[in-house]
Write a structure and sequence with these properties.
Layout (H helix, E strand, L loop, with lengths): L1 E3 L5 E4 L7 H9 L10 H12 L13 E6 L7 H10 L3 E7 L4 H7 L4 H4 E4 L9 H16 L17 E6 L6 E6 L7 E8 L6 E6 L4 E4 L7 E9 L8 E6 L7 E6 L7 E5 L21
Parallel strand pairs: 3-4, 4-5
Antiparallel strand pairs: 1-2, 6-7, 7-10, 8-9, 8-11, 11-12, 13-14
Helix pairs in contact: 2-3
Protein name: COKA1 protein
Keywords: Extracellular matrix, Secreted
Subcellular location: Secreted, Extracellular space, Extracellular matrix
Length: 291
């Protein structure tokens, strides 16, 4: 399977799309380069949530490998997203070209780094890596496949998926999430939330015994996308998704004017809940003196 990314990841084809070498090579030849920013953390999250799912062709019994190819330093937290994949037993190989940050490649990649991190000065030089990388990938797959795979979930249906996401106690800055856990308790939950009209997603990791979360420090009057994913030892179950808008900030009420003089006015109002300061603007009417 292959995904390209900039500020928005895009799946080019899933693991189940092609079954022969010739088909894959033809798809590569027809690939259009996607320019733009370098949100590597968002891309790795996309791979986990979209490309490594059974309905995208990922087989539970198969070893999971991700090869990251990048020519720049990530503009978001790539390390956090990479750690989530590695915690699930997904092995990451990092290949840098031109302006890639080698320190970041080493953070993202799996151990041992001498087998999983590569860096070349320009794209044509990638061909020099193919033979070695092929040998390393194949040997790593064989090595991992020979180990006993325990606690492998049999499917990712309702048994492994939470249900009934409820979003309550919504304020201008917070909301409360709760859900019903799956029949098979997960090891952890990943809760991802972001403004629906763009913004860097934030992530909270919870213990699998917890089934609620208070989100705080949100932006007022903003629609948020919320996703809850159950994480098992070797797979991520189907997620719950919801959309809710935070409330607008409360306004001061009952503005009153009193104690008028030739050069002063007294104003009074009912407080706005949660306000820490007030900004008072006044100007001469209709149009005379400065504000």
């Amino acid at each position: 399977g292959l995904s390209q990314y900039s500020s928005d990841p895009r799946t080019e084809w899933d693991l189940s799309a092609y079954s022969t070498r010739e088909q894959v090579l033809e798809a590569v030849r027809n690939l259009r380069y996607k320019g733009g920013n370098t949100f590597t953390g968002l891309a790795l999250t996309h791979v986990l949530e979209q490309n490594l799912k059974p309905d995208a062709g990922a087989r539970l019994e198969a070893e999971k490998l991700v090869i990251l190819l990048t020519d720049g330093k990530s503009q978001d937290d790539a390390n956090l997203a990479a750690q989530t994949l590695k915690n699930l037993g997904i092995e990451i190989f990092a290949i840098g070209v031109k302006n890639a940050d080698e320190a970041e490649l080493k953070q993202v990649a799996s151990e041992p780094l001498e087998l999983t991190v590569y860096n070349v000065l320009d794209f044509p030089l990638l061909s020099s890596l193919v033979a070695r990388l092929t040998r390393v990938l194949c040997s790593r797959i064989k090595e991992k496949s020979n180990k006993d795979n325990t606690d492998v979930p049999v499917n990712t249906g309702p048994q492994l998926s939470p249900t009934d996401l409820k979003i309550s106690a919504v304020t201008s800055k917070s909301m409360h999430l709760s859900w019903s856990p799956p029949l098979s308790p997960p090891k952890k939950y990943r809760v991802v939330y972001s403004p629906s009209k763009g913004g860097v997603p934030k992530e909270v990791v919870l213990d699998g015994a917890v089934s609620s979360l208070q989100l705080s420090n949100l932006t007022s009057h903003t629609e948020y996308l919320v996703s809850v994913f159950p994480v098992y030892d070797t797979v991520v179950g189907d997620g719950l998704r919801g959309v809710t808008s935070t409330l607008p900030l409360s306004s001061p009420r009952s503005l009153r004017v009193s104690e008028l003089s030739h050069n002063s006015i007294r104003l009074s109002w009912k407080v706005a809940q949660g306000a820490t300061q007030y900004l008072v603007l006044c100007s001469a009417a209709p149009d005379g003196a400065e504000d």
